[in-house]
Amino acid sequence: MNKNKKNIRVLILDDDKFMLEFVSHLFRELGVGEVLVAEDGKAGLYVLSAQIDPIDLLLCDVEMPGMDGIEFLRNIADQKYTGKIVLFSGVDADLLKAIERLAIVRGLDVIGILSKPVTIESLTVVLKKLFLPVSRIVYPSTQLKHVFDAEEVKRALVADQIKIFFQPKISASSRRVTSVECLARLHHPKYGDVSPDNFISIVEQNGLINDFTRTVLKKSVQQLDVWLQQGLDLKISVNVSMENLDRFNLPEIYQEAVQNSNVPIDRVILEITEGKLGKDFAQSLDILTRIRLKGFGLSIDDFGTGYASMETLKYMPFTELKIDRIFAHNATKDSATRVILESSIKLGKAFGLNVVVEGIETAADCELVARLGCDEIQGYFIGKPMPAIEFAEWLFEYEKKNNRYICSDARDEKRNDVSSLERY
Ligand code: C2E
Ligand code: MG
Ligand code: MG
């Protein structure tokens, strides 16, 4: 059904009768069709259960005698409530944010927080949000809901259907493109270029990760070889799964993948996700240290989301720290996020690491992380992951926009010999 204000149904939960009347009045002033009220969580559950038509918006006070807001939200999450929710209360902002997080983790759609006193302006903003489509940047390849099985992934590996997309990283100070992260895609005949979230765990769980990583590394190195020959001064980062670290000869396997090219080994950085570090500390340390000895760079990926202890940082021979995108996003608006971002950058710098912030989506995020002293920036704001052939075009335009001209053959090469690039 097409929603307009007149057919919106709102339920307000608050133990303060005056507040119930006041907010109901404001909603009616704004033209909302139906406003229901309840004085605590239990009453709210009762009202919800008595509805035939769904409630579109729930305004939920947090502090209520009897069943409070947290208990109420837990109950409606169990009942799979699918409408939008706005939290409102006089409790302090940190507490409200924790409650918002809790609701989101439970799968509820919280579209905002309102501090009391509620005004007609703040309710207008809430109603606007109700009509907004999803505001996140979503690329089609990440929306896929198909679940791959091991056989499909095996077939893709054998049929050479693993493609590499390249996402640029720029220097925070010079804004020049310094390197690219190589991100795997499974090129499926029906679904197109499928993102790793849809198949990496299958690869890992079915003993395919070593073949997979070697394939990705080889293809990425081959591409870098082409770019270096064209005069592009780039490095590459390749993701390594912690499941890879199950064999002591891994450094030799990776070295071999690079040695069959003209690429200097120190132009290759291996990224390891923090969340899985330390399963077997001695074995990880052995393998990672020997990877460094061979000359690879070593990056701790998604920093801040896992369990890397200070001990991990102290002893694992990392050269780079990559701060997860959840800390880049919102840091301009949210003080707690900003504190974490700022201290992670300082921590990385204090350890002498190259600090990268990923997931930069806006100019404001970009300016902030540069000001906070990170070394490199990656994110949709700079450039999205793209096939090699598009990357050459993108780089040319990027440099032109910044009044620099790359004197390389990269772009001409693209025109003259498309097939040689398309192979990757
Ligand atoms: P990652 O290594 O942290 O890579 C960054 C992911 O964030 C990429 O997703 C990239 O497309 C996405 N991203 C980049 N900029 C932005 C941004 O501004 N906003 C948002 N919202 N997202 C951004 P992708 O390509 O889907 O890869 C997801 C993860 O899959 C990677 O996270 C990495 O952990 C894993 N992965 C990718 N390729 C490989 C691979 O060859 N081997 C292994 N083991 N894992 C891989
Ligand atoms: Mg990565
Ligand atoms: Mg990451």
Report on this model:
This protein is of the alpha/beta class and 424 residues long. The protein folds into two domains: 5-130, Rossmann fold (3-Layer(aba) Sandwich); 141-422, Alpha-Beta Barrel (TIM Barrel), CATH 3.20.20.450. Helix content is 42%, strand content 20%. The chain contains 17 helices and 14 strands. The protein has helices at residues 17-29, 41-49, 69-78, 93-105, 120-131, 150-158, 200-205, 209-229, 250-259, 281-294, 310-315, 325-328, 335-350, 363-371, 388-401, 410-416, 418-422; strands at residues 9-13, 34-38, 57-61, 84-89, 109-115, 162-171, 177-188, 192-194, 235-240, 268-273, 297-303, 320-323, 354-357, 376-378. Strands 6-7-9-10-11-12-13-14 form an eight-stranded mixed barrel, surrounded by six helices. Strand 13 (354-357), helix 14 and strand 14 (376-378) form a beta-alpha-beta unit. Helix 2 (41-49) packs parallel to helix 3 and helix 8 (209-229) packs parallel to helix 9 (250-259). The longest helix is centred in the middle third of the chain and has 21 residues, at 209-229. It is elongated, with a radius of gyration of 26 Å. The two termini are 46 Å apart. Mean pLDDT is 86; it is low at 134-143 and 414-424. The structure holds ligand C2E and magnesium ion (MG) (2 copies). Ligand C2E binds next to strand 7, helix 8, strand 10 and strand 11.
Second rung of CATH, namely the architecture of the largest domain: Alpha-Beta Barrel
| Secondary structure: number of strands | 14
Helix content: 40-55%
Shape summary: elongated
Order of the strands making up the biggest sheet: 6-7-9-10-11-12-13-14
**Low-confidence runs:** 134-143, 414-424
Write down the CATH class of the largest domain.
Answer: Alpha Beta
Number of domains: 2
Largest sheet: 8 strands, mixed, barrel
Count up the helices: 17
Which topology of the largest domain does CATH recognise?
TIM Barrel
Strand content: 15-25%
**N/C terminus separation:** 46 Å
- Output mean pLDDT: 86
By secondary-structure content and strand pairing, the structural class works out as alpha/beta
- The gyration radius over C-alpha positions equals 26 Å
